[in-house]
Amino acid sequence: MDQSGWSHASTLAAGHARGAVLALEPLSFWGGYDAALGKIVEKSHPCHGRSLAGKIMVMPRAKGSSSSSSVLAEAIRNGTGPSGIVLRERDLIISIGVIVANELYGVSVPLVVVDDGVFDTLYRCTQPIQIDAPHEGGEARIEIMSGTTL
Amino acid sequence: MLVLNAQDQAMRDGAFGSGVALAMRIVARTANVMGARELIDISSAHIDGCLYHGPASLDFVERFVQGDTRVAVPTTLNVGSLDLIHPELYHGDKTTERAAERLMKAHLALGCESSFTCAPYQLKHRPKAGDQIAWAESNAIVFANSVLGARTSRYGDFLDLAAAITGRAPHAGLHITENRAARIVVEAPDFARLPGRDVFFAVLGFLLGEQAGATVAAIVGLPPDSSEDELKALGAAAASSGAVALFHAVGITPEAPTLDAALQGQAPARTISISIDQLAAVRRRLNQGRPGDPLIAVSLGTPHFSVEEFEQLVELFALHDGPLKCDFYVNTSRFVLWQLETTGIAQVLAKRGVQIVVDTCTYITPVMKKLSGLVMTNSGKWAHYAPANIGVSVAYGSMQECVRSAFEGKVYFDEQSS
Questions:
Q1: Coiled-coil stretches, from where to where (chain B) (predicted)?
Q2: B3, B17, B190, B343: most buried, per Cβ within 10 A?
Q3: pTM for the full predicted model
Q4: Where would I find the beta strands (DSSP E) of B289-377?
């Protein structure tokens, strides 16, 4: 965090987004997210029934099948996917879903990785946040919208 | 920081067409995520993009088809959502059926082989030790790395095809020798002479996945005569319960002539000793059937059955007279089916009421006649995924127990294992 209240992150895929946070335990999109209905269908998941549409997904990493990349790309295509993603680990399955959706449909869902401290703050955050990730491979900035600093 | 060579840059900049450029952008962007510094040549690819997950699946492949793009290396295909040889088996939604068929055929237009199998290591040509490859499908990845000694990271949807089209992959993960060293040691109990031995391999694999996650393990104590089919069952189960992409079986697999070789001379981070009781407990956890419970079906062949497994199955069928008392499915590839038709095994099993399913698998798509009730399998992977995917409950036993149960129409376990 710097003095202006922005928190720093690494950009895996560029983009800008603002929205409410949906903090998730690791989810397997394949078998766990219904991209047509736009809701979490994994029965044992704490956020069962919730939608990611328009939300900033804050999740440490994905779990399960690599087919999850396809389901995430499909969700981004049809508007049931998250508008931005904050991870704690450089998750390949999530990254590929976002990169391919960007290549095929020109949708830029910002995908960033943060350190443990920032992740914990965002994971518990109840206010909207903004992600500003202008360059892939470069630095990104995250701000909590209410004026509260991280 | 990733550095592309002149050829990579030419691909990215469109010198070989828009499809190759798209594929190279995906490979390079992913390489950056993985922290790779360069790309390497691959000698084969295995693609897991034939299962239909919605319009994005088709949009991706058809973008390449429209650009007249072709794969640059020999490329096999994983299962699709349909059995194209026996299309009448599918009883799902018609719109999905058409899209799924289009998806499978679009991959053929790119120059991929019509293998449609999750066990590409059972095809005629397979990678050798040390070959750099880009394979998807968790059980194929673990088999290629562990049993064949070829080198692949855990590729998945999109990146697998992008690697096949460019012939390049990020130099990271299990492509690099040091990352292939075992970090933990697993001591297996002696189950070499127990009946229904196939189940112990799958159960051990299941436990390995839970304990190891994505960490490379060296297993000591496996039967010296462990077969490829048994190691296949172990790997498939390990890749279902964890993110296992490589294990070493000391004295058996190519990178583990000794424990020290598997560890690449380092001390293990930990050693896990597994007892027969622990294996029995995992087995009970995977099993929801009690002796005598009625069965709607038996399903074998996840991963796809080999010719040798079919030969064992025919021997087991010879021990029983009369008709099967429940449906009986075996998943395999069309390549194995052709061999069975030549030797007559396919005809023998068809006459006994066995339905051989090819190109797909019974746990990912509606091909079994009944999808409500108890199904018995010897596959740890099937037992793990089928309840959520297709809504059945699972009885779990050895191949021998599965066959006997099918002739009784109800669950039967050998005394020793129940």
A1: none
A2: B17
A3: 0.94
A4: 297-300, 327-332, 354-358, 374-377
